[in-house]
Amino acid sequence: MGVVENLTAGFFQALTPGNLLFAFLGVALGSLVGVLPGIGPLGAMSLLLCTTFGMSPIHALILFAGIYYGSMYGGSTTSILLNLPGESTSVVTCIDGYRMTQKGRAGAALFIAAAGSFVAGTLSVVGLMLFAPPLAEIALRFGPPEYFSLTAVGLVILTYISSGSKVKAMLMVLLGVAVSTIGMDPVTGDQRFTFGILALSQGVDFIPMAMGLFGIAEVLNVVTKSSEVGIVQSVHLREMLPSRGEIRRSIGPVIRGSLLGFLIGLIPGPAAVISSFTSYAVEKRLSKRKSEFGQGAVEGVAGPEAANNAAAGGAFLPLIALGIPFAPPMALVLAALLIGGILPGPTFIQEHPDMFWTFIASMYIGNLMLLLLNLPLVGLFVSVLRTPTKVLMPVVAVLCLTGVYAVNSSSVDVWVLVIAGMAGYVLRIRGYELAPLVLAVVLGPKVEVYFRQSLFMSDGSLSIFFHRPISLSILLIPIVVIIMRLLVSRVTQTIRGRASAHEESG
Amino acid sequence: MKLQAGARIILFAVLMIFVSMLLASAGAGKEYPRKPITVVVPWPAGSATGIVGQKLVNIINQNKYLTQPMQVIYKPGGAGTIGLAEVLQGKADGYTIAYNPSAPILVQPLVKELPYNHRTLIPIIQTMKFPWLVAVKGDAPWRRIQDLLGYAREHPGEVMVGTAGDYTWPHVALLQIMKATGLKFRHVPFQGSAPNVTALLGGHVPVSFVLSGDVAAQVSGGKIRILASLETERTPFAPDTPTLKELGYDVQGTMHTHIVVVPKGTPDEIVVALHEAFKKAIETDEFRPFIKQVGGTPGYIGYKELPAVLEASVKEAIYLLEGIGVKVKKTD
């Protein structure tokens, strides 16, 4: 069979010392930038871009790919341990991951995150390997109206992931969208809400907001609680590993998250982010332990972590199969390939089969490396928590402050961090969830751009969203879900009513 | 002759001052650049501007035309205005420069509130020109541009044309076409070329105005077909496709070029140094075939002539825009 032969050949290539070295470098760097709040895979790739000339293109590809999906592994570490999301894709992991840490299950959470990421990453490479061209064609069918429907429904899903009041969550989503409008209009470049402050024309960046709302607010929270607060962490190896029950509960979420993440990853835009919280919402919906979500349900870590890794794999598909980058990190991978003299296009797989299969094999290897890298480090990471709070909190605060400045050297970012931190502290006391807010800041601009592009296409008519089958189906999902819930509860009530009437008369 | 202690000290001090001045002037010979230079490309990484900018920077670094390395950073947004505005509001010390297409410099300050215009910057060098082309999907029913125009005549206001953004050159070209042909098209601005090409491939827009560099791979793969050139001359990238001008339509083409710019107030020696580096890069044997590969044409203009060229171009752009009926702001 063609695939097996090609894959074997690919493995032979991928296991050469040069390719192995770059794979390792890539995933190690990726994990590092994922763990460090502030710099992300995009920043790392931008900085390394000029080092790629002189490199053979396959090395550059393996390196950059490793950085990208490696960062999905690392991003969950600080989310789980410190409630500090390293990437926008790990915001959702904070919700249950940090609660697990507070319950002493940090090791288990980290373990499940790493294992889930490995499974998801591997599955997504399988998908990439087998289905690249046909899936690429399907991905092309999505146009601005479909992107709008997806991101708009995403905003709706955001309100569902919170465990508290839905109204408050909706308020947070709206606030997030409002904040995202600050800056230059993405279509025309006109200034909005900048009040003449030039630095604000870049808009409010995700990193300072997230680090403020989660990191600084958490520091303030811990600091203002009782001085005895410390996070109890077990040191025994057995207790650092997930229990059998936890593993069993994670299998479903990981599989579902992988599938969801891979498919959503095919779409341009913030696919990995959308897949992470969609997975969370799906798991919450399907779980028999709904009330545990938000209190440390392991499914809330397993699903999203699998989803964001699978989305990273899926993101490569349009680049490899069509030659078009769908997300900014992919654009940098494209740039690296161009520097190496390769112009990826629709015929990339046919013209460079050796590169393609070596790349695929290398991704398998890279995922394995990440697993082997991250698992033993779980113990190390958990021991970080043994630092007394009065040392840990200031360190986190300083890390946030300097990390934020390191990204763009912009003092506006630091202000955003501080203001978000204070706002986050107040909001949490009042029972508002922060994940919907910060994720809405990420999604908001996209929703707006796609909406306006769609209206350009339709010459102002809103019917474009309903006339196109894919867009219509996506928009109907929340409606269908609501109707089904109503129906199911009605039916259950009727059955119960009949049963009790039966008992009484019987 | 034995010197007195005091005299010895004074002699020593004078010697020290002399030596340190020598050293300082030798150190001053180590002038710009003293640290790595950031080149901001206000477009996504895979865009035509990005590719060419990256290539030039690589050539400069490889051949060490400057004593410090250059580093490309991509800052897309606002149809090229956000990254450019940031550079032009930064320090005029030559360590942050922009590699830019000309529309954000020539066109957009005329129609938008922007914190810069063509006079608040120093253009260093124009590197090359790119033609804008009319592209359709490979399996589209129109084989010639006349077929497309005929279809548009029968379906006024329905045919969507995707461009790379609001008031970028393709948008201006579309406005020109609409005026010259009297046909109504629907403009769909995307954020850069990648979404534009994606939408074309996916069939979401039937026509896109693209740069040769954006679609080179797709054209050779047969997925995209070029129907016409929007410029005043045929392009070597697609030599069999006519220009709209030769078909009789008054389409003046775009003035799409790449220009390196720095903020006003940047010292002259930095301007000269940057100019020399880029000029050498575009004359290398590596760059010339590269231009062909991406479908562009050479178009060098140096820093001495550029300000006048830009002035003339802006006047032409004003004339163009007003002729199409676009309100133009007054430049000071």
Features of the shown structure:
heterodimer; A: 506 residues; mainly alpha; 2 domains; two-stranded antiparallel sheet; 75% helix; 1% strand; globular; B: 332 residues; alpha/beta; D-Maltodextrin-Binding Protein, domain 2; 11 strands; 42% helix
Commentary on this structure:
With about 500 residues, chain A is an all-alpha fold. Chain A folds into 2 domains: about 1-465, no CATH class; about 470-505. Chain A has helices spanning about 1-15, 15-35, 40-50, 55-80, 90-100, 105-140, 145-160, 165-180, 205-225, 235-240, 245-265, 270-285, 300-320, 330-340, 350, 355-385, 390-410, 410-430, 435-460, 465, 470-505; strands spanning about 185, 190. Chain A has a two-stranded antiparallel sheet. In chain A, α4 crosses α5 and α7 (about 145-160) runs antiparallel to α19 (about 435-460). The termini of chain A are far apart. The mean pLDDT of chain A is about 85. With about 325 residues, chain B is α/β, with parallel strands linked by helices. Chain B has 2 domains: about 35-130 and about 255-325, Bordetella uptake gene, domain 1 (D-Maltodextrin-Binding Protein, domain 2); about 130-230, Periplasmic binding protein-like II (D-Maltodextrin-Binding Protein, domain 2, 3-Layer(aba) Sandwich). Chain B is built from 12 helices and 11 strands. Chain B has helices spanning about 5-30, 50-65, 80-90, 105, 110, 145-155, 170-180, 195-200, 210-220, 270-280, 285-295, 305-325; strands spanning about 35-40, 70-75, 95-100, 120-130, 130-135, 160-165, 185-190, 205-210, 225-230, 255-265, 295-300. In chain B, the strands form 2 sheets. In chain B, strands 2-1-3-10-4-11 form a 6-stranded mixed beta sheet, with helices on both faces. In chain B, β1, α2 and β2 form a beta-alpha-beta unit. In chain B, α2 crosses α10. The relative contact order of chain B is 0.18. Residues about 25-30 of chain B have low confidence and may be disordered. At the A-B interface, α14 and α19 of A face α2, β2, α3, β7 and α8 of B.
